[in-house]
Amino acid sequence: MKLNQWLLFGTTLLIGTAPISSYATELLTNLPSQTTSSVELVAQNRAVALKSGTFVAAEKPTTGAVRIVRENGQRFLEIDGAFSTSDQGPDLHVLLDTVEKPPQSYQNQGRVINLGRLRSYTGAQRYPIPDTVNLNSFKSVVIWCRMANATFGYAPLRSNSTASAK
Question: Which residue ranges does the record assign to the DM13 domain (predicted)?
Answer without folding.
Answer: 53-158
